[in-house]
Design goal:
The protein is α/β, with parallel strands linked by helices. 39% of the residues lie in helices and 17% in strands. The chain is built from nine helices and ten strands. The strands form two sheets. An eight-stranded parallel beta sheet has the order 5-4-3-6-7-10-8-9. The chain has a two-stranded antiparallel sheet with strand order 1-2. Helix 1 runs parallel beside helix 2, helix 1 crosses helix 9 and helix 6 packs across helix 7. It starts with a strand and ends in an 11-residue tail after the last helix.
Length: 246
């Protein structure tokens, strides 16, 4: 649904350094943010995951969780059962842990320590009674004001960490919790950068539910593009072209 390019430029003089496919970059940096959030906010022994919505983001999201937590099994849920079975088979082979296609989302999430929602839903589907104590949730799908995945009551009962508080209040699941009167923007525990920098705590007890409201921020694109360019330059990857006499 989204097509585009990322142009990485020299910060000192604006000279273009690289042109990259934005869709691929967005998938990777969004999953990387989920992995970092899980490392800071999930229990250290979290080992069962559910991924809901098996589109472009889903594989990278499960890979990211597997990098930061000792996954023992996972569930995959999608409105298309064939897609769910295909995902489960492919990711079982790739990760070496059993991934099951889940037809009953509530049953799967109640057995999970880690939940990722990456759908295009217009109304919430993950409710408070579907999540057990101590769970980490990455709410990835809501990136416009008409998208919603997490019930306001669940948001209100959780420790909410926003990638950008003001942006989440406008277009994230936080937006809907505020509109429902369940939360205020000031109820957000922290912005993600505050947790990573150690200015605010991450998980503080084993029973709290933590929600990472992930709407996406341009800073992640800059950091990811810089890392890709640095590695590509070191490995001689990509197609080099002359530009502006350079």
């Amino acid at each position: 649904t989204i097509q585009g390019v990322v142009v990485l430029s020299d910060a000192e003089n604006g000279f273009p350094l690289a042109i990259m496919d934005s869709a691929s970059l967005t998938v990777l940096r969004t999953a990387a943010a989920t992995g970092l959030a899980a490392r800071a906010l999930a229990r250290s022994d979290a080992c069962v995951a559910t991924v809901c919505g098996l589109g472009a983001q889903s594989r990278a999201q499960l890979r990211a969780l597997a990098l930061v937590r000792p996954l023992e099994r996972a569930f995959a849920h999608d409105l298309d059962p064939v897609r769910a079975r295909t995902f489960a088979d492919e990711m079982t082979g790739e990760l070496g842990v059993p991934v099951h296609a889940a037809t009953d989302l509530a049953q799967a999430t109640r057995m999970s320590d880690l939940i990722v929602t990456c759908t295009s839903a217009r109304r919430y589907f993950l409710e408070r009674d579907m999540v057990r104590a101590g769970t980490f949730i990455a709410a990835v799908g809501a990136d416009s004001e008409d998208k919603q995945e997490i019930a306001p009551a669940l948001m209100a009962s959780a420790k909410v960490v926003a990638d950008v508080r003001a942006q989440c209040a406008e277009i994230g699941d936080l937006h809907h919790a505020i509109a429902a009167g369940a939360m205020r923007a000031s109820d957000v525990h922290a912005e993600f950068a505050e947790v990573l920098a150690g200015r605010r705590p991450g998980r503080e007890n084993p029973d709290e539910i933590a929600v990472f409201d992930s709407t996406g921020t341009a800073l992640e694109d800059v950091a990811a593009a810089g890392a890709v360019h640095e590695r590509a330059s070191a490995e001689g990857a990509g197609l080099r072209v002359r530009f502006g006499g350079r």
